[in-house]
Amino acid sequence: MNKDRILLDHGGGGKLSQHLVADLMLPAFDNPLLAALDDGAVFSIDQNRFAFSTDSYVVDPIFFPGGNIGDLAVNGTVNDLSMCGAKPLYLSCAMIVEEGFEIEELKKIVDTMSQAAETAGVQVVTGDTKVVPKGAADKIFINTSGIGLIAPGVNVSGTGAVLGDKIIISGSIADHGMAVMIEREKLAFESAIKSDSMALNHMVQKMLAASPNIHVLRDPTRGGVATTLNEIAAASKVGMTLLEASIFVRPEVAGACELLGFDPLYVANEGKLLAVVADKDAEVVLGTMHQCPAGREATIIGEVTEADSGRVVMQTKIGGTRIVDMMTGEQLPRIC
Amino acid sequence: MNKDRILLDHGGGGKLSQHLVADLMLPAFDNPLLAALDDGAVFSIDQNRFAFSTDSYVVDPIFFPGGNIGDLAVNGTVNDLSMCGAKPLYLSCAMIVEEGFEIEELKKIVDTMSQAAETAGVQVVTGDTKVVPKGAADKIFINTSGIGLIAPGVNVSGTGAVLGDKIIISGSIADHGMAVMIEREKLAFESAIKSDSMALNHMVQKMLAASPNIHVLRDPTRGGVATTLNEIAAASKVGMTLLEASIFVRPEVAGACELLGFDPLYVANEGKLLAVVADKDAEVVLGTMHQCPAGREATIIGEVTEADSGRVVMQTKIGGTRIVDMMTGEQLPRIC
To answer: Are B5 and A90 inside 8 Å of each other by CB?
Structure first.
């Protein structure tokens, strides 16, 4: 907190974001539910455990290949609840709209949200719409919050990874970030790169039914796979080793990353999850994922190899080893 | 929906806001919980009933006499849950911050939110921070969503008003809207006008304990008392008669309204509630309110006088009668 103004990096999901939360939010809202820093808060009322999560979406552009801000907002909160091990039930939808925004576009966004909610099997039950004068906001921002129910016996948390666990990813990485980036910069690429924006809740429910030994679930959004794994490693106080060769980047995405100077490990995903699973159940969880549309390309990308380092390392394709740090700056502002 | 662009009035809480919700949101997110159009959605899980509510705050200026965007955001959602008859438990906090915003100001806002949460007895348990480039948002927008628990036997809803019910307001009107307006326009008034931003949940719990015959609770925010009563009259299919002489406007607020051309009945409040109560329990509810700091100046301002007109009329101080319609345009943009 030695900087005196908010920088784009404070919202990028990397180290500055972490500092902002640790130095400003946590001391102010001092309570154990927030301090867990999972994708949502988990609380109990009588015999039921609930997850509660919120996210504001400010993606630019609001329409991109593979989705728009509307389905992104629904899928994002559905996924955050799922990463708590919850079955998402109800969403809220609060919009901040710039004066002059086309109603036809708003209708398109709302219709997409409605379809995304139906696909995920959740209901949008409460909402709010604010309009601000032209120039006071860029087109439209959408907040969704959500409530889900956690089944008895399910216990996933960022602190749950232990030595020997396998790390699974549900598919290719960096699709969302590069799709938005290319659309924003109006770059022309030969093959269309599409966002992976997708609800993961149905797959997560099947995974949780297949194994009681899923220790961590996280969706690698802002900051990408590298940042998310670093967060898990730090929270669980373990070290992880990744195999670069097992991490799938679509050739067109890899090409775009190389050309534009992005490391796909740090680029946001919006329809992928990382699961840290007990070694003995890794294959059964992987098999379950392969049967779901959201997990067809799931692979084991590494394992928990140290009991306490909090460090993520990668064995590269050419046989070397490199440290995979958290993202320090903001690669891509307004990616979600 | 014959306009093809979003106008400020679409967010003002009046008729255009209603059309936007009725023509666009309700058909898309077609479900009975949303269709109730109360201040929050009410759903049951096992034997428990919950309220779930969301609001985004875009007030300009962000600091004003009597509060700032932070306590406004906490009190607003605490009050929306309370208006469902719920005891608020947990809040989320999602911020959209403009690049370059001063961290010192952010800290002030967050600290105020923390104090407001403590006063209301709720916990902020989950959050999100997005930063957008300079010019893409005006300083800071805050969304709070919240979850509350409704005690058995409590049944308040916008549809609950019946013939003979008394209409109670918890205090003076138009303080918040005029405080923000005067601060925004940098007007100098002799007496300081302060926002009434305040959490109403403790008073509401006492009111609900005092009488099982509170039929409707609503906080007259955007659109003011006139718009809120019109919404209740329409939802409950009743007609109401107000007594102008019983509606308290602080002299300095009345003066500012007159000077600036605002009708206080349409100006936003952020720490007031309207209660529609069975005639036989009106005095006991009023007495309970008088014992609470939030209800010291509570008065009965009218009653439900017709079974089906959906109309609100007022007996004026000079003995006439006038129709009190919903607000049609936006009196004050970015008031909350």
So the answer is: no
pLDDT digits (tens, 9 = 90+) for A212-244: 999 999 999 999 999 999 999 999 999 999 999
CB contact under 8 A, A33 and B5: no
pLDDT band at A15 (very low <50, low <70, confident <90, very high): confident
Q: Count CA atoms closer than 13 A to A302's CA, side-chain side.
A: 24
Q: CB A180: neighbour CB atoms within 10 A?
A: 28
On whether both A120 and A249 belong to a single domain, the answer is no
Q: Does B103 touch chain A (CB under 8 A)?
A: yes
Closest by CA to A57, choosing from A134, A122, A137, is A137
Residue B295's identity, in one-letter code, is G
Question: By three-state DSSP, how is residue B270 classified?
Answer: coil
Bridge-based pairing state of the strands B123-132 and B214-218: unpaired
End-to-end CA distance of chain B: 25
Q: Residues A33, A79: contact at Cβ < 8 Å?
A: no
Facing residue for B10 by CB, picked from A60, A131, A145 = A131
Query: How many domains are there within chain A?
Result: 2
The verdict on residue A334 lying in a domain is no
A113 and A172 inside one domain: no
Q: How many Cβ atoms from other residues are within 10 Å of residue B81's Cβ? A: 32
